[in-house]
Amino acid sequence: MKYVFYVLGILILILGISFTIQSDLGTAPFDALLVGLSINVGLTVGSWEIIIALILKGCNSLLKGQRPEVLRLLTAFITGVGIDMWQER
């Protein structure tokens, strides 16, 4: 049952991010970074979500001296793909 709530929470998160981006009223700071990179560099917002998450989680695992947690990388991938699916660009 907890996995159902986990996936449902990710879907609500993706929907909220996509709606705030499409509304042009402003986004959260991290999402603003993704939108700015998307506009200036040319990849999609979801692609930047995945790239930045991989960089941050890789640096974090290096600093901690541990292997990256696969579930967190999977969450970033699902979120990035989901944002791109909801965007109309």
Keywords:
single chain; 89 residues; mainly alpha; 4 helices
- Which geometry do the CA atoms define? globular
Number of domains: 1
Helix content: over 70%
Number of helices: 4
* Total number of strands: 0
> Are there runs of 5+ residues with pLDDT below 50, and where?
none
Output the radius of gyration.
14 Å
Please report which band the strand proportion falls in: under 5%, 5-15%, 15-25%, 25-35%, 35-45% or over 45%.
under 5%
Q: What series of H and E elements makes up the topology?
A: HHHH
Could you tell me how far the N terminus lies from the C terminus, measured between alpha carbons in angstroms?
A: 35 Å
Largest β-sheet summary: none
Question: What class would the helix/strand composition place it in?
Answer: mainly alpha
- Averaging pLDDT over every residue, what do you get? 91
Strand and helix map with partners:
Layout lengths: L1 H22 L5 H13 L3 H20 L5 H17 L3
Helix pairs in contact: 1-4, 2-3, 3-4
Please provide a written account of the structure.
It is a single chain. The protein is mainly α and 89 residues long. The protein has one domain. Helix content is 81%, strand content 0%. It has four helices and no strands. It has helices at 2-23, 29-41, 45-64, 70-86. The protein starts with a helix and ends with a helix. The model has no long low-confidence stretch (mean pLDDT 91).
